[in-house]
Amino acid sequence: MDSLKxxxxxxxxxxxxxxxxxxxxxxxxKEASALAQRRSGEVERLLSERPEHEWRGGVIEGDLxxxxxxxxxxxxxxxxxxxxxxxxxxxxxxxDGEKDNILKWLRQKFVDIQHLVQNYEWSTIRGESIALPxxxxxxGEAQKFFPGxxxxxxxxxxxxxxxxxxxxxxxxxxxxxxxxxLAFQFGPGRHVWHPWAPGPLVEPQPRFxxxxxxxxxxxxxxxxxxxxxxxxxLVTERxxxxxxxxxxxxxxxxxxxxxxxSPAGVRNSSVDELAGYPSILxxxxxxFPASNGHNFDPLGLIRSGDKKLRDLARWAEGxxxxxxxxxxxxxxxxxxxxxDEKTQVTNDLRLYPPQGFRQSDMERLSDLFQLVDNPKLRxxxxxxxxxxxxxxxxxEGLSLAQQATALLADLCQLGETKSFREFQASWLRASNGxxxxxxxxxxxxxxxxxxxxxxxxxxxxxxxxxxxxSVCNNQAQGKTFQSGILLRSTKVFPVEK
Length: 497
Hints:
Elements (H helix, E strand, L loop, with lengths): L6 E6 L8 E5 L4 H20 L2 H6 L1 E3 L2 E9 L6 E9 L8 H24 L9 E4 H11 L13 H29 L23 H7 L7 H8 L13 H16 L11 H4 L3 H10 L12 H4 L3 H7 L7 H15 L3 H13 L7 H14 L2 H7 L13 H17 L8 H10 L3 H16 L3 H22 L24
Helix pairs in contact: 6-10, 7-8, 8-10, 13-20, 14-15, 14-20, 15-17, 16-17, 17-18, 18-20, 19-20
């Protein structure tokens, strides 16, 4: 077995009935776990001495690298520190760039370990620690950060025995001294000091404090205020009579699933736990950015990326997102037509072209058929969630949807459009003659189709154009967001042909 260059371990205050529980890699040497437990006091000291914002992002001091957060202890409702630590003598001599890479990696693993803590069956725990296979894998990854001459050293058995004996002598001496002090200092009728009396871990904080800060709400905000602030995140088709906590929980779960790709087991977390996870609060801060007055920005997660991502997102900027989602779902009518039937549809159009329909339009329709079959656009069009925000995984689908609107604009003779809003505005200005003709031709050819499946293909094509007409003509449909995003430029980057 290769020599250990480092030890990765953590501590959680959410360890079920045990509360504070150490988390080790599966199969870790006893000497290594003993070393980690001894050094945990130094981790706690480091966290107590440094500002909270520092250790949330990760700190390195000497041979310790730590990322931590304050979480709610389920059994008591009190907050406590949860952390992940990497010990290695290689940290002392690592360059600044190497340290940055280590902290970036450690932050991601801390998010992962929080999910493991959420989903662990704490009712089965027997000792004061658990060993997880995931940490064993991460331990192997961490080894690669350090050169071959880095070796983690443990105290020898002789040194350990000597320390144990000295420790016992010291404890006896301290105990005798305390007894003498108490005998002289405290007499009958005086208040007796109990040095072993437990104190609070952390001063209790108001409920949802981090969530309130992230959303820019007043300190005294109540759950109903938070639920109202979060309401633009979801499409709500009727009055929601659920409790504010349930509405908050649904939004936080949705963000965790769509942004963090959390497993279904996270659904067991309470709303208080979800509202304290940095992996949820961080993307929520992008959706309600302080730079925009904490107004909801459906493109906030994309805007927080590099310039290329922001340019890609401009096609959808300032749009009514319920309408945009309906437009994307309308594209699924074309996705449902099998490839061979799409070919037959274009052949029929050549035989029975509607009035004003150009030869080049058939090529554009064929390109549109091919475009909507792209898996990225298909995934975006068929997303069954009620979210009103886009994540980075949607970007390729959004880019393809942008190209689809450009093809539709050409097909319908609307002129050049570079955003969905421009497409809708051009549609409203135009007479839409070619579209009305296509809808009617589709109905006629659906009736006269030589095969039932081809009739269904024509019906879907007609339904698609009918839905596009409905979406573009109904400006009042859905909820328009009154926020700074609507005042921004609608300039978009050119469509790639």
